[in-house]
Each structure stands twice: as C-alpha cells, then as structure tokens.
Specification:
The chain has helices at 14-23, 29-38, 53-62, 123-127, 135-149, 168-179, 199-207, 223-229, 238-252, 270-279, 305-317, 338-350, and strands at residues 7-8, 63-64, 69-75, 82-87, 93-101, 104-109, 112-114, 129-132, 153-158, 191-195, 213-217, 256-262, 285-291, 322-324. By secondary structure, it is α/β, with parallel strands linked by helices. The strands form 3 sheets. Strands 3-4-5-6-9-10-11-12-13-14 form a 10-stranded mixed beta sheet, with helices on both faces. Strands 1-2 form a two-stranded parallel sheet. Strand 9 (153-158), helix 6 and strand 10 (191-195) form a beta-alpha-beta unit. Helix 1 (14-23) crosses helix 2 and helix 7 (199-207) packs parallel to helix 9.
C-alpha cells in the first residue's frame, strides 16, 4: 500500500489505535502512548522513544507518517512572521503562517489545497482547486509547525487557503481534535474559523453551539457589489447572510467578526460605510478592516491610507466597533495563496 493510500497518522483516533493494538497483540496502554506523541506533533516514529522498535516499524507499515513535508520556509525580516510551505504526497501544496503576538504564537492554517469560491480579489482563486484537507492534515499544520519552531501555538485561525465550510465535516473533526482535553487541549475560544458566507453551514455551525470564534468575509455592504467581488453572494443574499449571523450571536452569545478588505474607490466610499453601518445595526459584532492584498493580475488596488482611516471613522461614528488589522509578513507574501500560486507556477514550468 502506497503512502497516499494509507491512513494518515494524525487522522487516527485513540479508539482506532486501541483496536489496532488489540488486533496486533500489543498492550492497550500503547495506544495512549502513541496518541500522546501524535498530539504533540511528533510524526517521526524514531522519536517515539518509549515505543518498541518492532512496533514502530509496523506502525509505519500500516499508516502514513510522512504525509506532509515542509519544502520551504520564509521568515519576515520585518516582524518575524514565518510562512511554511507544505507538500502533500499527491503533489498539492498548502501554506501555513505563524505570527507572533504579545499573547503568544498564532497559526493561520489552510483547510483546502486551493479554493472553489472564486473571489475576484483572492490569489488562491487564481491558482485553482486541488482538494479538501483531512482533519489530520489541518491538525498537522498546527502540531508540526509548533514542533518545527519549538514553541507552543496559542491560537489557531482557519483563514488560510480554502473555504472551511466547504470542508465542514473535516473542520468539525479538526476542532474536536484541538479541543480534546487528553490531546492538544486548546480551548474553543482560541480557535477562529473564517467563512465567505455559506449560509446553510453557518446555521449548522450555530446549532452545534460551539464557543469557537466565527469570522465572516463580507467585503461589501450590498448584494450588487458583493456579487462583483464574491460569487458566493449569488447563492446567498446579504440579507440571508446577516440573518444567519444574528441567529449565531443569539444562540451562542458570541460576538461575530466581519472581515472587510478595502479596495481603492470600490468598497471604501462614504456611502459604503453608511450602508455597512445600517446593515450591522444592533448586532454584537466587530469589523476587521484589512488593507487589501495586491498580487499580479489583480484588478484591485488597496485603499489609500487616508481612505482607510476615513472609512474606519465613519463606522465608529455610527456605533460600529472597527479596527484595522495589523499587517504581518508583507515581505514574504504572508497573505493566503500568494506564495502557493507562485510556487505551483514555477513547478509547472519545470515539468
């Protein structure tokens, strides 16, 4: 059985490992030992020093322990932000970004290799779609990144390449893996999931009453402009989306975040600020304004600093809580999808 066909070690549950131990005549306690290594980010069996060599050999025979490989690393000279480039065994490439804040390390992970959503301002959309990631491959970005830099990851943001709610089941399994008190033991409030607004999945997510932070990629205050920027807006109107967001806040008691990238003279006008304020009136929310990322062939330019500040003040004067996201790793293309797109284009040239 090849490496791609084998089940990835980080997709194994403790129950599955226990059954594997019983089927192969190993003591039950070995399952817990193996799981402890895996949830610590150790996927190299040679480092599992309390596991017999013969058992490690059989583990490698039955499961994949080298599913993901770091093929490149970029470190920002500006703020120390790191971008890790992971190669999957089927040739797909994903990116993981590690950022340092006063509160500790945060990692921004990908949920898919590529994205189907087709947002016109996003580098990921231009690079095409490969496949959805397994829960284990999502967890690996947290665990392997932590082991790679030798520090604990404090918070996780599922906001890299891909649409998390288009990979819903694996996303929920990933969250459970992170929350597991016998494993990573990361609190739900240390996890943020960002979606472009797949309304049925927002409702399903709401019904689970998880205390995970929810962020909505909004980027426009009306249907006409949002459809121009984001094809998903043709499937779900902004009225439907905001209604689902209000339900989320009512059910979970959690504040919701709206991501709003500012494009020069497109969605950064005073009229847009007025519309956005009206749209969000009375909703327990926070608007995260983003100086838009530019990439070759993008039809949009980032808003001028003066327009950004004017937009922010216009929201605040109408009672909307707004902040400007701190830019990190700009010298290493830390924005999702930019680097993957360039690397895959170079790989195709070499073939």
């Amino acid at each position: 059985m090849d490496n791609v066909s084998k089940k990835y070690c980080l997709d194994l549950t403790e129950e599955e490992l226990l059954q594997w131990c019983l089927d192969n005549g190993y003591p039950r306690f070995r399952a817990g030992q193996i799981m402890k290594w895996l949830t610590s980010g150790v996927t190299d069996t040679s480092k599992m020093t309390n596991i017999p060599a013969s058992m490690r050999q059989q583990l490698e025979s039955d499961f994949s322990f080298s599913r993901m490989k770091i093929i490149d690393e970029f470190i920002s000279e500006i703020d120390g932000t790191r971008k890790l480039v992971y190669l999957l065994p089927d040739g797909n490439i994903i990116e993981t970004v590690i950022m340092r804040y006063k509160t500790g390390l945060s990692v921004c992970i990908s949920s898919q290799a590529g994205c189907k959503m087709g947002c016109t301002f996003c580098a990921s959309a231009k690079a095409g779609f490969g496949r959805s990631l397994t829960a284990g491959e999502m967890a690996a970005q947290v665990l392997m990144s932590s082991e790679h830099i030798g520090e604990k990851i404090r918070t996780v943001v599922v906001m890299g390449i891909g649409e998390p709610f288009d990979n819903f089941e694996n996303l929920i399994t990933f969250i459970k893996l992170m929350n597991d008190p016998d494993g990573v033991n990361m609190g739900a409030r240390h996890i943020t999931v960002s979606t472009c607004g797949i309304v049925p999945k927002i409702k399903e997510f709401t019904a689970m009453k998880l205390q995970v932070n929810l962020a909505i990629s909004l980027h426009a205050p009306n249907d006409e402009l949002r459809r121009e920027l984001m094809p998903v807006a043709s499937a779900y109107s902004i009225t439907e989306l905001i209604k689902a967001c209000r339900e989320y806040v009512d059910v979970t008691g959690r504040r919701i975040t709206f991501e709003y990238s500012l494009f020069n003279e497109v969605n950064d006008t005073f009229a847009c600020a007025e519309q956005l304020s009206t749209l969000l009136k009375g909703l327990n929310c926070h608007v995260n304004l983003i100086a838009a990322n530019e990439f070759p062939s993008s039809p949009y330019k980032r808003s001028a600093p003066g327009r950004v500040q004017a937009f922010k003040k216009a929201l605040e004067s109408r009672g909307v809580n707004a902040t400007l996201r701190r830019e990190m790793g700009t010298d290493i293309m830390a924005a999702c999808g930019q680097l993957r797109r360039g690397i895959e284009e170079d790989m195709r040239k070499e073939v």
